Amino acid sequence: MPDSEGNKTLMSYDPDNSFAKILKSELPCIKIYEDSQTLAFMDIMPQADGHVLVVPKESAATIVDLSVDGITACIKVTRRIAIAVQVALNASGVMIVQLNGAAAGQTVPHVHFHVIPRSLDAPLKAHAVTREDPAKLKRLAVL
Amino acid sequence: MPDSEGNKTLMSYDPDNSFAKILKSELPCIKIYEDSQTLAFMDIMPQADGHVLVVPKESAATIVDLSVDGITACIKVTRRIAIAVQVALNASGVMIVQLNGAAAGQTVPHVHFHVIPRSLDAPLKAHAVTREDPAKLKRLAVL
To answer: The domain spanning residue B72 has which CATH number?
Structure first.
């Protein structure tokens, strides 16, 4: 779809998306990390135990719309979270996934990085399908 | 496996890996972009048309081993490539994937970001399986 300047956009920003609501404290989250530019929290429909999302506070739908400053802040935190989940969960692998546009599988119109711990003996679950027990998410978050 | 300090690492660095050889011009690549810290080139086993890899020049096996400076340089170029492939290929989605450790699907022990254009009508091919016709890669690279 074209934006206001006639350029094609991968996804329009919706200020009422669930991550925007989490940033405004209108929805709860299990917080892992926060600074002036970013927030990291447990994915409530994890693809693996310890699945964390990193979002910028900037209102941008996709990486194409996000400022260089915003993307830099996000990747620094994403790297820190990757190191943390690896250590906390003794993961033998970590996937970082960042999806832009419905065709790429993006479901929430606020740019986000998935940090997904991986092990050879646990298959990856489908993206954004099954809701996890909040108590289990809280246990993983404090590791 | 533990590194020299006894910490667990996700993957050991092999200075003879294929991306290190590309960086030393010991192997060819179809170059998309290069600066003092990064190189971007066509993936020879693409998961979709226009699949590009972004690598740091720093010798690091995974994101855990890469410096903050290195990761910052990589994500800035990754964002530029994502914008470029979206425009060049009229892609309706762009996936960014960064895999760490064999358990996450990493096959080359030099940290790299996948930039994969997506469309709703073309299924994603398996990772690192089928070699593409070099002439087709060159045609896509000049778009």
So the answer is: 3.30.428.10
